[in-house]
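tmp note - FecR family protein
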Amino acid sequence: MANNDTYQPEPEDISLARSLNRLIESGEPVSSDQVSLFNALETYKSTIQLRHEAKADSDLWDSIENQIETDTKQSGTTATLFTIRSPYLKIAAAFLVALLISLLYLSLPDSEPEFLATSGANQTRVVLDDGSVVTLRPHSRLKTEESTDAQVTYRIDGEAYFDVTSDASRTFSVVAEEGRVDVLGTRFTVSTWSSDVRVFLEEGRVRFSDSGTGESVTLDPGEYSVLEPGGPATPISGNPETFTGWINNVINLDERTLSDIAEELSHHYDVELVIPDTAASESLSGSIQLDDLNQVLDDLELTLGGEFERISENRYRFRANP
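out:
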């Protein structure tokens, strides 16, 4: 996180401000194409890294306004940033200002967790301040919940592999829904894409607890646990490739049920695979290369003896051969 006293706007900030200024100054009716400028703010909101600073961010808008004024002088015209010519544009401009200020440099020290990274269709590698490395599975998000000299806590939505730097003076924790993992130095995975939170320990030692009940278990290397309604299940040994294979773009089936495999693939590709009850409990072995989704579905069809039919956008249903 940056600690600069004065915020220097990113190129994206300037670009948005310029686009809005040109739209407003034109005085033309707002078309559907122009409305897309404001719709794009939601995309912008989901892709930027959120930051929280103690200092108010008036410097941000001062900097952007100065930039726009420079553009105006160079073009030989006279204009005022955000001169509003219609009620619609007043609302749109107010929305832009409120949204970007709240997203970029919000002076609320106790506000929502800070987004560190969001992965799209590919893995994302994040190096934390202490040197720990987090590998995010596709379509996953990592946030900072707490950061002090004695404690740092992150929240994961989706799945991630953590390689934590050892620091006996500072507890490293990961929150996943109602589950919590506390470590000192280790390698482990945490996933939330299934119906249960799962933790697999590759190296070191972790304590996996239920935030609601307070029940906890301690995992040794090679063990995993699942968060059940009453607390974490007793740790049992697991195949490391089953839990970390996705890092190498592979799913290890390892006698897993089709419903469990479908849940993992649904998260990995950001789709929904609908499995009928008659096939949900079928066990599969081997491995699947996580390349193109269509190729993955083709491989499953050959193994299962059936086909995945597309029933809507990003939604597929398996139908067994008669």
